Amino acid sequence: MNDTVPGTRERILHASAELLADGGAAFSTRAVCEAAGVGAPTLYHHFGDKQGLLDTTAEYGFERYLAVKRANTPSADPIADLREGWDAHIAFGLAYPAFYQLMYGGVRPGNRPAAAAEGHRILLSILDRAEAAGLLRLPAAQAADMVHAAGVGVVFALVNTVEDERDPALADRTRDAVLAAVTTRGAAGVGSGAGSDPVGELRARVRAGTLRGLTDGETALLAEWLGKMR
Fold this sequence. Notes:
The chain contains eleven helices and no strands.
């Protein structure tokens, strides 16, 4: 076999990804080489060392994860999109725990894969729309950090717990608590009916600067009044 023909690198990467997707217990450079039908020198030629292979496999995992997110068309309701994105994130982590551990637990500080940065931008774009609509209690960037940290924490808590001992409602309860903390529509809210908070929404719109037709003085006065309301 000519190990330098085009496709060898992709074959090694695919073998690495499949071993991780299968649970990761059998993962090793030897197992990857056997699955890809190459020798160790070929693997090291393409990836440098085991860490290089793992870093590239993490990028591959993020690409798989993002493929679905890229295909999603934003709806008219950014909070509904946020809920859907949270649920998809949890589902991916539980379906591919070894992959997820590598993607989010094995990334070294300052070495975030480009695909991971793209995933964060997708989350931030949803929250930017929510902020523009006056639906956030805090700036979009801060909300994105909270949602991301909570989502990753929930997945790690679940995958590191024996499956029979997992709390099946943990992800939903945490999602609802985070939404209540960062949005004005709270845990239940994907509509404008019961549970909506018009005062909170107005406060958020004042903070975001999305109110129209008011002078600076009027806006400042409104902010003062809203601050006194409970």
